[in-house]
Design a protein that fits this description.
The chain is mainly alpha-helical. It is 83% helix and 0% strand. It has 23 helices and no strands.
Length: 435
């Protein structure tokens, strides 16, 4: 009786009625719970319906009844593979080979499991053995499938070897670059680009090397090509921004570092570079602001104080420049960098001299009255609203009154003859617009 249910189940499975087939196999198993083939067939139907766990349970039940039921081992191996359980798949395939050492399908499954486990040498050996057995059986399709798998694995190995070789050369380039061997590093990059013409990192490093050798146009070409190959490479954009500063493309550099700061707002180096670009462009106020932002991130970086001092000097804020050079000197002293310490002190002395000369000049022009005190008294003498504007302006320039005075004087030169309150409002409006 169970045989009739079993046969009907096979027919329904062949016709695609998998649910009906499962019901027939269940009827057969109710009559004969030791019917291994019925468990196996029901496992096949469940697998085809996507029920891998149910299929594995049926294959395991069949093997309890018949421990040498090879098709159940193969079916369970395939089901394990479908669930990403390569080790379980491998164990079942090996179990088949212990029973039948010339089983082509078992070798093929073993090769696939080894490949999933990253054991390429064992995978190739398994596929070769499977291809040989399929060839002896004149099974052209399966033989070709095994040979194709071998080709794919070997292609992956070649790519991995190529990537390893590329990384090796890149490491050599970086080491030579750090040692100052720019010519040798350039030769390595040339060879690397000959082998890997679409390697963005190679273009990036060749661009860096070219910039250090003074070939700024060539550097920009390489960095531009690297950016095309990998638009999201932060290192490429960073160096392109720096080369743009060297080339005088300050607006392009500002655009690069602004984009980098959107990605990494806590990177003080980007603020330094953008501050340099702004200062080179003549926008000293914005440059000073970027250096100040960098100092909020790295308050003990003497380099940032040094750059801000230079921008303040160009902005004719000589006292502010002297203060920053002094702070830079203090930090260089702590680092025992005596060369830079002395440079900062020398710059500080120059700025102090300029500040004193400027004060004397302005005092003479104003009947020897101190310009800063005079300016403050003038503002205080105005109406209450002027005092509020004064405080607002001070907040906007970070509390640096000398910077506020300088901005007011520039406005007076550009728009002479206007009321004091008008100049305060004008400076405030300009600062808000530039933000």
């Amino acid at each position: 009786m169970e045989q009739e249910f079993y046969e009907r189940g096979r027919q329904k499975a062949q016709q695609g009625d998998l649910e009906g087939a499962i019901q027939e196999f269940e009827q057969a198993l109710q009559i004969n719970p030791e019917f291994a083939e019925a468990y196996y067939r029901r496992g096949l139907a469940r697998f085809d319906l996507g029920d891998c766990q149910g299929a594995i349970a049926d294959y395991s039940q069949a093997l309890q009844v018949n421990p040498e039921h090879l098709d159940s081992y193969l079916g369970r191996s395939l089901a394990h593979l479908a669930q990403g359980e390569a080790q379980g798949s491998l164990e079942d395939a090996q179990q088949v080979l212990q029973i039948d050492g010339n089983h082509g399908a078992a070798y093929k499954l073993q090769g696939t499991a080894y490949r999933r486990l990253g054991k390429t040498k064992e995978a190739i050996a398994s596929f070769k053995q499977a291809a040989k057995l399929y060839l002896d059986q004149k099974d052209k399709d399966n033989c070709q499938s095994c040979l194709e798998s071998i080709k794919q694995i070997q292609a992956t190995q070649i790519q991995a070897a190529s990537a390893a070789e590329t990384q090796k050369y890149l490491t050599q380039v970086i080491n030579k670059l750090q040692r100052g061997n720019h010519r040798e590093a350039l030769e390595d990059c040339q060879w690397l680009l000959h082998v890997a013409p679409n390697d963005a990192r190679a273009y990036c490093y060749r661009g860096i090397i070219r910039s250090k050798l003074g070939n700024l146009r060539g550097a920009m070409e390489d960095l531009g090509r690297a950016m095309q190959l990998d638009p999201n490479d932060i290192q490429v954009r960073h160096y392109r921004g720096r080369v743009r500063i060297e080339l005088g493309d300050y607006r392009g550099a500002i655009a690069d570092f602004t984009q980098l700061l959107e990605l990494q707002p806590d990177n003080s180096q980007y603020y330094i570079c953008r501050g340099q670009a702004y200062s080179k462009l003549g926008d000293y106020r914005q440059g000073i602001e970027d250096y100040s932002r960098g100092l909020t991130i790295q308050p003990n970086d003497p380099q940032i104080y040094y750059h801000r001092a230079a921008a303040r000097a160009d902005f004719q804020d000589y006292q502010g420049a002297a203060d920053d050079y002094q702070q830079a000197a203090n930090l260089y002293f702590e680092k025992q960098d005596w060369q830079k310490y002395n440079q900062a002190l020398n710059q500080q002395k120059q700025q102090i001299a300029k500040a004193e000369a400027e004060i004397k000049k302005r005092s003479a022009q104003l009947n020897r009255k101190d310009i800063f005190i005079n300016q403050e008294r003038q503002i205080r003498s105005n109406a209450r609203v002027d005092r509020e504007l004064q405080q607002r302006l001070l907040r906007m320039v970070g509390g640096y009154w000398d910077v506020a005075v300088r901005l007011i004087e520039l406005a007076k030169k550009k728009y002479p003859g206007m009321p004091e309150n008008w100049y305060l409002q004008k400076v405030i409006d300009d600062l808000e617009r530039d933000r």
